[in-house]
Design brief:
alpha+beta; 2 domains; two-stranded antiparallel sheet; 23 helices; globular
Length: about 575
């Protein structure tokens, strides 16, 4: 979304240089948004895993440094790593449940090994994104996201009871209820810059309720120094992975894949919200964002903490409230976060937050994550086939999560590891998607070179397709014209002088109900056709020559989408027709 009338207009776009003072000031506000959730996510994961205080202090410190580094990398965009946008990173709450189960069953070294190996899954996703986009769809990603939220909720409710043994029975639920009530009130009433401190307000309300019950322990704050580095605990990587590693690897790979898909969705939202005027999505920057997440996962594995992920809600809140989307802000956020990480007393204050407050925070976060999954599923609409995918994957994922059936089939130990609802749901969703693709009306494919000599070949290909579909003459002509103008638009800005031969062009036609989806896959370097179509004006008496093909394409096609990846461009054209 772009800045609306009730939000700050965009003053600086990502490529525009804002003064260093503004970058640092806005960076401080961005750090205020993410530091508290950053510490809370890690604290919940480490405490629930049964690790000691030395691991807790170190993991929080390492996570803050790691998220600062990834935020700066996202802003700076070094090569194919980074998005070139203000993309605030925080520890991924969706990994809390799997970290707890892995550390409890196999140890921290196995968790570290799995994280390091699965960092390659993120990089592979970015590399193969053009190919995987039809298999790992928004329906799959949304379904798995909902299952992740449901699987983490039991940890949140267990954390509500994390109090001293002599605490009153009603203390935990009352403290959690006060935190949730404050969160709801602040979310409903906070406006403008108050939204930046909304998390702190709800945490303070919960801590006040804990103090009333006498369960707020301030010894950690008193014992902590003002500045310094924490003691590094015993960290290791399992170089000789055992059975637990191989059993858990599919779950980690699936969850890492979903993390990458969530990053893609967040990247799209951040791009849209960082511009004064809407533009087509730059998927090369999306690939860079996923690559940066892969680097963060590698660092998280080495440090034994939660991996980072981009948070579009915090990023867009910062941009909308300040009107500054310049990438320098990402460096400012990183600088302030590193300073706070070295400020030991501040970290100790956050680590003193009682368990019921953490549990209430996690409940709300997982509720919002569940809604985010629903929105992802609904993004492309719910036709009967997608409804079947969501329904079956959710039913099996929720029903078999921790069920005795998996233990009966695979034994007690393996059954506990394999009975993960997220993994089961993801496998079912991906398998159903592949089955639907295999049983759908088969697409027709043509491979040619990207030059004018291919126009007659493509025209003949589309004519045969229209004849197969029994389209009338008007619809056939519209399909042929759309194909010709799409090719001409690709050719009009292709820099062919640098190459010794014409690039390859693949044309795929997917017939659907009263419509054909044409997909042109080419290795080109031209500007985005979607942007050019959006910038066309209808008030020009005599259109420019280079605009003519775009105008004709807009006339013949019902929809045009252009996705630019590293090394490949995909133009999707939809043409409606009747028999």
């Amino acid at each position: 979304m772009t800045a609306g009338s009730d939000e700050q207009p965009i003053r600086y776009e990502p490529e525009e240089a804002c003064p260093p003072s503004i970058a640092l000031l806005v960076g401080a506000q961005g750090a205020a948004l993410v530091v508290a959730p950053m510490v809370l996510n890690v604290a919940i994961a480490i405490r629930s895993s049964g690790l000691d205080d030395s691991h807790l202090t170190w993991s929080v410190f390492a996570a803050m440094l790691m998220c600062a580094a990834i935020t700066a990398l996202q802003a700076c965009q070094l090569g194919r790593f980074g998005a070139g946008h203000v993309a605030l990173a925080w520890p991924a709450a969706m990994f809390i449940a799997i970290m707890v189960s892995t550390v409890t069953a196999a140890g921290l070294a196995t968790f570290a090994s799995l994280m390091i190996v699965c960092s390659l899954v993120q990089v592979a996703l970015a590399w193969w994104l053009p190919t995987l986009r039809r298999i790992v769809t928004p329906t799959v990603a949304g379904t798995v996201t909902m299952l992740i939220a449901v699987s983490v909720l039991p940890i949140a409710f267990d954390t509500v009871g994390d109090l001293p043994a002599d605490a009153p029975t009603a203390a935990g639920p009352t403290i959690a209820g006060a935190t949730l009530l404050a969160s709801v009130i602040v979310a409903l009433r906070a406006r403008g810059r108050w939204r930046l401190v909304a998390p702190f307000i709800s945490i303070l309300a919960g801590c006040a309720a804990a103090a009333a019950f006498g369960v707020l322990d301030g010894d950690r704050i008193a014992d902590a120094g003002w500045f310094g580095l924490p003691e590094v605990p015993d960290l290791s990587v399992d170089l000789t992975p055992g059975r637990e590693f191989w059993v858990l690897l599919p779950s980690f790979a699936v969850l890492t894949l979903v993390l990458g898909l969530k990053t893609i969705s967040d990247g799209v939202a951040i791009q849209q919200g960082s511009r004064r005027r809407p533009r087509a999505i730059e998927f090369r920057q999306i690939q860079g964002m996923v690559n940066a997440n892969g680097a963060g996962m590698l660092l998280a594995g080495a440090a034994g903490t939660l991996p980072p992920m981009v948070n579009s809600s915090y990023s867009l809140s910062l941009i909308n409230l300040t009107g500054v989307a310049a990438r320098r802000v990402g460096v400012g956020v990183a600088a302030v976060t590193v300073t706070l990480a070295l400020f030991s007393k501040f970290t100790a204050v956050l680590l003193t937050i009682p368990g019921p407050v953490l549990g209430a925070y996690l409940m709300l976060a997982m509720g919002l994550l569940f809604v985010s999954g629903c929105q992802t599923v609904l993004r492309d609409g719910l036709d009967p086939r997608r409804t079947l995918v969501v329904g079956l994957a959710s039913a099996l994922g929720l029903g078999l999560h921790g069920h005795s059936l998996t233990r009966d089939l695979f034994g007690e130990e393996l059954g506990d590891l394999l009975g993960n609802g997220v993994t089961i749901g993801a496998i079912v969703a991906i398998g159903m998607t592949l089955l639907i693709e295999a049983t759908s009306r088969r697409s027709q494919r043509l491979e040619v070179t990207l030059d004018t000599a291919s126009i007659p070949v493509i025209d003949e290909f589309l004519t045969r397709l229209a004849s197969t579909l029994e389209w009338n003459e008007a619809s056939t002509m519209r399909l042929r014209s759309a194909g010709e103008e799409a090719l001409t638009s690709l050719l009009s800005q292709e820099d062919g002088g640098e190459a010794s031969q014409s690039p390859r062009l693949i044309v795929a036609a997917r017939p659907q109900a009263k419509m054909v989806e044409l997909e042109f896959v080419a290795t080109t370097r031209q500007e985005n056709i979607e942007d050019q179509l959006a910038f066309l004006t209808d008030d020009s008496a005599v259109p420019a020559v280079h605009d003519l093909s775009l105008r004709l394409l807009r006339h013949h096609a019902s929809a045009v989408r252009h996705q630019k990846f590293h090394g490949v461009d995909i133009v999707t054209v939809r043409v409606e027709g009747t028999a």
